[in-house]
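Input record (one chain):
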Amino acid sequence: TSSPVSIYTPASSLPSQISPPFPTILPSLPSRSLSIPPPITPLISNSPQESTEKVSCPLTVSPSTLVARFGDPVTANCSIQRRGFPLIGWEVPLAAPKATTDCFLVWRVDRMILWSMTPMCYALSEQGGQCHIHLPLIVYKPPGNVSISFVDHTGPMLEGHQYTLQCTVQDVAPVENLIVTFYRGQTALGQQQSSNTMKEPVNESFTLNITPSKEDDGVQYWCEAALILGPEGPQHPPVVMSQKLPAKVHFGPQLVCPTKLKVREGESLSCEVRGNPQPLVTWFRDGQVVDLPTHSSRQHAGKYTVLAKGLLGQKNFTVEVEVLAGSG
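The corresponding structure, as predicted from the sequence alone:
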């Protein structure tokens, strides 16, 4: 979780009059980032001969991180916790309030219209110098649309071949807070996160490689995009789901029955061969094409060869049939 940064900057001599700081006398601000370093305790040297003394900046801001939806109103409070700092103010590019001698100052914006800024609250010391604290700000926009598709592929897939799913998220900010999850039915396949640090809304695509099997025939692939905005964000993070993408997988041929098949006299002899599309099956016995008997007898016992021709090729199976005595 990000935390505010407090910095105290001493002056070289006591001023005769205290006035609000200007950007030219403020220390350089850290680069905009969601990861803010921990509070800094600066050093003040009373004189070259005296020992160095640690002094912290007594400013606090609430909330500790400001999360705002673009276009919504925002409010943040800055307060001073110790005497000796008679003036506090906000350094912001939008709706900056007038500096005050009170112990707190509220920054209010009716409508957040900037995607990126670094709000800063400052205080002037009676002894000279100033301190300031930065307020981490996240301005967000939920995804406008989420869709899923295959990359460079249409139509049925082939079992054992690799394909790439692509989840496209449109008009979302900040994209670095976005987590995309791919699903097969209700099973999560994997998560992706962007390294793009743009604060303005962008379109971003995420990919995941899959290798389908025959069990995937008929399943639905989809993806979900969630903006993770931290504890200061909305209680229910914005989540948008894609459409469902049905999968058709070509596979086979595959022998379903056992290679040693037992039937009783009078029963029909059957053996299933599966595939998608359904393969063409031919039975051979002693090199001759035969039809499977509907009423088996002892003379039907022996070895059979099954030739199955499918879209992915053809396969030969050997099935040994044993005919048992009838139950009656």
